[in-house]
Amino acid sequence: MKTLAVAQARMGSTRFPGKVLKPLSGIPILAWVVRALRMAPGIDQIVIATSTLEADDAIVRWCKENHVACFRGSESDVLDRFYRCAVEYDADVVLRLTCDCPFLDPSVIGQVIQLRAMTRADYCTNQPTWPDGLDVECFTFNALSMAWKEAVRETDRDCVTQWIFRNADRFQAEHLICPFPGAHKERWVLDTEKDYELCKEIAARLERSSPPSCTDIMRILDKEPKLREINHGAIRNERFYEGLAGEPLAPRSFTRSNALLHHAKKVTPYGSQTFSKSYLHFPAGASPLFVTHGDGARIFDVDGNDYVDLVSALLPVVLGYRDPDVDEAVRRQLSRGMSFSLATELEIELAEKLCELIPCAESVRFGKSGTDVTTAAVRLARAYTGRVHVLVGGYHGWADWSVATMGDKSIGIPESVKGLSHKLDFIDGDIPENPKAIAAIIVEPMDDRERLQKLREFCSQHGIILIFDEIKTGFRYAMGGAQELFGITPDLACFGKAMGNGMPISAVVGRKEIMNQDIFYSGTFFGDTLSLAAALATIKKMEKEMVVAHLWTIGREIQEGILDTYDRISHPVDVEGHVIKFQGLPPLLQISFHDHVNATKEQIKSIFLQEMAQQGVLVLSEHGVSFAHKEPEVQRIVKAYDHTMGVIHDCLNHQGEITKRLKGMIQAKPVRAA
Questions:
Q1: What whole-number distance in Å separates Cα of residue 12 and Cα of residue 33?
Q2: Statement: the pTM of the whole predicted model exceeds 0.90
Q3: Residue 569 has pLDDT above 90, yes or no
Q4: Where are the alpha helices (DSSP H) in 404-546?
């Protein structure tokens, strides 16, 4: 099999024109790239792929003078350039590199080639765990051919492998993981003047006789860490994300999702292990139902569609999918083991951290889900008070005591159990006649400080345990949750979701005298070290990068963009809630839907979800913003709202219009107390 290395080059860079022929230590950057490729094992032939533009004649001349094969093709359709080059040189396997990476490591290139060969993968890369500037992609000609035939989006044609990456359900992919901690933060690519300045400094410190290795450059930067400040703050793949935000949208098909649903329903109720991720919550046939992978703020479905994700896996993903720091921590712990026969020091370390961050936390117990810890909190409250009744402020997990107040969702729960849980409307005057029978009041502290304060005073007055369910608000409103933001301290609190950036972990925390009640609460996997390591890494990064401040900023930008849309669109789509109501705080904006004379709230929500998905945004009933949501994602979200609200406005102003436009209906009702 012939492995062809294709290095793309052009003179017309928008940020740094002519960069590929700029000198580094007296040698053109193009020569640095070719030298590395010649030293890399597993390559049969090297070709520089440039465009037919006159400006790129200089690249052709250089290749001729230096006896390097050169292929010319489309300037804008780089995928076509690669495909025709691969055909011209009869390639079985194609290696893609870019000539703005002067410090390519021959050893890393060879490892990517070998990994693809050993696994028989369709696609293999070393990103995103290696330094930016060591990028290597290796793929079969068959995968390239499929992309060339089927890709239609501008970013797919420009970025060559993006269509393959999006269609992960159709290709086996492998990743060469970098063993060096924090390597993903390095930037050795050449895209700006600042990058060039750093590259010159590095090149001046290297031996010129052979291509540098990754460790050669790391040693230089570790010895002189101030060099890293030269191009600090640049965003990886910034041009790509800008292109995504601005490109025209392609029609979306959900054929594979629908086929998988038919298959899944044969072996799984609802076709999903999580009720809120099931087909019941999405308009049938008009939205994605199964995903393959996530990356940053984007999620990808089995049909090859991508979305800016505002669901964020039902809120655990606070840093973004595949966050390199969290993934690195998980891999490091995995090399030592996952579950053990005794406790680990990680349990102590994380518990101490939570006690440091959360106002009410004096003691900590871990769980795997929100239900684990809310149920533990209720049991602790009953044990401490000697009482049995609980006032429930909403949905707090799937346990009997929680869903007992949820009407049709309470099937299978004995009446004797239902009689111990009572709905709390969370409004003035909704206080039972016999407060001395109440063990606990549990609420989600979303956005009403005054009412939370009244509850705090009432509970203190009557010896009731106040439990804050901070599964959603924890590590979003503030590092210490809503209790830190509002300055109201509960007796017990429950955290989870965002604490592990997607790894399954939760915690019940609170006053020591309550936490020390001798209830039986235990689980084989409660001390799972991968989740503990993920939580510690997540919290560390959130503190270092001021992630909560980012969630407030980006959430507010989206909120303001929606308000601008409302200014352009008159009633009945009303910000005050006549049809669609937004409430809550920017890091977790809540969305509710209401009946209209020309449509039911279910129809309105269905058309909302349908049109947002078609516009490339996945959303349910809240904005689960993450650290990975940046300006390009905000642009896409606001554009999607602008389109969707316009469609809803038209539907509600013409009787019967919404029925014509709807391609499917949601079937599930919101999971809330009845």
A1: 18
A2: yes
A3: no
A4: 415-418, 449-462, 482-486, 512-515, 529-544
Chain segment 591-602, per-residue pLDDT in tens: 999 999 999 999
Q: 526 and 347 in contact (C-beta within 8 Å)? A: no
Q: In whole angstroms, what is the distance from residue 542 CA to residue 133 CA? A: 26
* Among 16, 8, 538, CA closest to 231: 16
Euclidean distance between CA atoms 351 and 532, whole angstroms: 10
Domain CATH number, residue 295: 3.90.1150.10
Residue 571, pLDDT > 60, answer: no
* Domain enclosing residue 359, as ranges: 337-544
DSSP secondary structure letter of residue 428: T
- Cα end-to-end span (Å), the chain: 64
Q: Given pLDDT bands bounded at 50, 70 and 90, which one contains residue 674?
A: very low
Q: Does any domain span residue 329? A: no
Angle at CA of residue 65, ends 63 and 66, nearest 5°: 65
In terms of domains, do 387 and 449 share one? yes
Q: 83 burial class (0-12, 13-18, 19+ CB within 10 angstroms)?
A: buried
For residues 464 and 439, is the Cβ–Cβ distance under 8 A? yes
Identify the residue whose tokens are 């040693």.
Answer: 219
Phi/psi region, residue 52 (left: phi>0; alpha: psi -120 to 50; beta: rest), is alpha
Question: The tokens 């703020």 sit on which residue?
Answer: 297
Map residue 592 onto helix, strand or coil: strand
241 SS3 class: helix
- Collapsing DSSP states into helix, strand and coil, what is residue 187? strand
**φ, ψ of residue 73 in degrees (nearest 5):** -150, -160
Report in angstroms the alpha-carbon separations of 409 from 114, 289, 418.
53, 23, 12
Q: What mean pLDDT is predicted for residues 499-528?
A: 97
Q: What is the pLDDT of residue 673?
A: 46
Query: What pLDDT shows up at residue 642?
Result: 94
Domain count, the chain: 3
Please, which pLDDT band fits residue 671 given cuts at 50, 70 and 90? low
Residue 33 to residue 48: CA distance in whole angstroms: 10
Strand partners, 291: 301
Confidence of residue 576 (pLDDT cuts 50, 70, 90): very low
Distance CA 613, CA 287 (A): 6
Nearest to residue 551, comparing CAs of 503, 582, 589, 580? 589
Same domain as 170, residue 51: yes
Please give the full DSSP string across 454-487, using - where no structure is assigned. HHHHHHHHHTPEEEEE-TTTBTTTBTT-HHHHHT
Residue 327 lies inside a defined structural domain of this protein: no
DSSP 3-state assignment of 95? strand
Report the percentage of the chain scoring pLDDT > 70.
96
How far is Cα 117 from Cα 121, in angstroms, rounded to an integer? 7
